[in-house]
Amino acid sequence: MVWVLDSTLREGEQTPGVYFDKHIKLAIANLLNEIGVDIIEAGHPVVTPEIHAAVKSIAQKGFKSIVGAHSRSLKNDIDLALECEVDFIGIFYCVSDERLQTVFKKDLETAITQITDVIKYAKSQKPNLLIRYTPEDTVRSQFENVVKAASAAVEAGADIISVADTTGYMVPGTNRSMYDYISNLKDEFAKRKLFPKVAVHCHNDRGLALANALDAYRAGVDIIDAAALGLGERAGIVDLAELLVVLSVDHNEQRWNISKLTQLYDLVSKHSGIPIPANYPITGKNAFTHCAGVHTHAASINPMHYESLDPNLLGRERSFALDQMSGIASLRYALKLVGEESMDDEHQMEVLKEVKFVGQRGRTVDLSELKHIVDAVKHHKTYNK
Ligand SMILES: [Zn+2]
After folding, report:
1. Which of 203, 271, 295, 347 is catalytic?
2. What is the DSSP string of 179-218?
3. Which residues contact 49 (CB under 8 A, 6 or more apart)?
4. What per-residue confidence (pLDDT) applies to 85?
5. Which of 355, 223, 362, 244 shows the shortest CA–CA distance to 293?
6. How far is the CA of 171 from the centre of ligand 1 (A)?
7. Are strands 223-226 and 3-6 parallel, antiparallel or unpaired?
8. Residue limits of CATH 3.20.20.70 in the chain
9. CB burial class (10 A; 0-12, 13-18, 19+) of residue 160?
């Protein structure tokens, strides 16, 4: 059973220009809880007093979802997160030789001591706290450094080790495969008799975040990070709706209320100012709209001819639109839907001509506009006999 961690409120707010007011954060968290995501990463309390206050009020809601905070490997960050009464803290620190030497001017041993001291401190303050340690840019750091730091973190009390593809560098089927990475890391832990949960955080710089997350799933990863609309730094991370639908529909992990995803996406889109592209899977305007003539005709007989997902699962409805590609069969089907099936052939050809005219200008005709065209054609015919 895989867990899903939603980071819309933490990673998502790192999208350039995105800021959610506290009441919007609460509304988003409410929906995430209703959907049933396993962990809500609510923010990094040290960043601003507003984020601190938002994390605290979300943690105090008594959700079924575990509420967590982000934290650097510093006691002060841990104290601020604990003040918010969270049950999960995600700590991060880099382990790559190059980064340690040039940015932090310290060696790996010193870094590991800092990481483990902070983990031990956090556990001593709240023993049932879930602690995740993330070696930043895990997949591009020396593997032996990752194993060394992560093993020390687990021995110090970390429950989860997260593999971060911070720059969206991994490519399935190559020597940069997430499947191989997770498998090798789990083997190293097993050799040391350590069995932390392993999480994966995939960025989407190559458009492969979901593919890499599913590669990690195949290797038995325990937690997958995602965000509504795939929001996050640069090209963002795994899209929550796509991930939950694939896990629910195709991997039989039916634990989430996916019918609420459309509502969540509308809310997040409105308050992030990031529009949902019309052709976006699952939540996009066109995701269940059939248009081309032969598609509409076949889909009107049996929708599964041109659908592999049932829109009802997502609380959505199938729709039909007409444009310059539409033929007489699609038009007749659409006329039936608007109660105009008795229209004679001559009128139908007139209506189709108008539909194609609209379509050629780059628009589609939905059923309500079709009704207007029908009325106009009838009117015209009546007065021009
Ligand atoms: Zn990230």
Report:
1. 295
2. HHHHHHHHHHHHHTT---EEEEEEB-TTS-HHHHHHHHHH
3. none
4. 97
5. 355
6. 17
7. parallel
8. 3-272
9. buried
Provide the Cα torsion 272, 277, 280, 286; round to 10°: 130
3-state helix, strand, coil in the chain (%, to 5): 50, 15, 35
Cross-strand partners of 201: 164
Q: How far is the CA of 118 from the centre of ligand 1 (A)?
A: 21
203 C-alpha to ligand 1 centroid (Å): 6
**Residue of 369, 38, 30, 55 lying closest to 222 (CA atoms):** 38
For residue 385, the model assigns a pLDDT of 56
The residues of the chain scoring below 50 in pLDDT are none
| pLDDT of amino acid 319 | 83
Kindly give the distance from the C-alpha atom of residue 259 to the centroid of ligand 1, in angstroms, as a whole number: 26
pTM score of the predicted model: 0.92
Total count of residues recorded for the chain: 385
Sign of the C-alpha dihedral, residues 336, 340, 345, 348? negative
Ligand 1 centroid – CA 368 distance (Å): 43
C-alpha angle 344-348-352 in degrees, rounded to nearest 5:
175
Half-sphere exposure of residue 260: CA atoms within 13 angstroms, side-chain side: 15
Cα 135 to ligand 1 centre (Å): 12
CA-CA distances (angstroms) from residue 39 to 7, 54, 68, 86, 370? 9, 16, 7, 11, 46
**What local confidence, expressed as pLDDT, does residue 383 receive?**
67
- Taking the centre of ligand 1 as the mean of its atom positions, its distance from the CA of residue 208, in whole angstroms, is 14
Specify the residue for token string 């509304």. 27
295 carries an active-site annotation: yes
| 283 CA distance to ligand 1 middle (Å) | 23
Nearest to 85 by CA among 63, 110, 111: 63
Where helices occur in 338-366 by DSSP H, the ranges are: 345-360
Residue showing tokens 């020396």: 142
* Bridge pairing between strands 223-226 and 319-320: unpaired
Q: What is the largest CA-CA distance in the chain?
A: 92
Q: In this structure, is the dihedral angle defined by the CA atoms of residues 335, 341, 344 and 345, taken in order, positive or negative? A: positive
Tell me the CA–centroid distance for residue 339 and ligand 1, in Å: 51
CATH 3.20.20.70 fits 3-272, yes or no: yes
Q: What are phi and psi of 67, to 5 degrees?
A: -105, 135
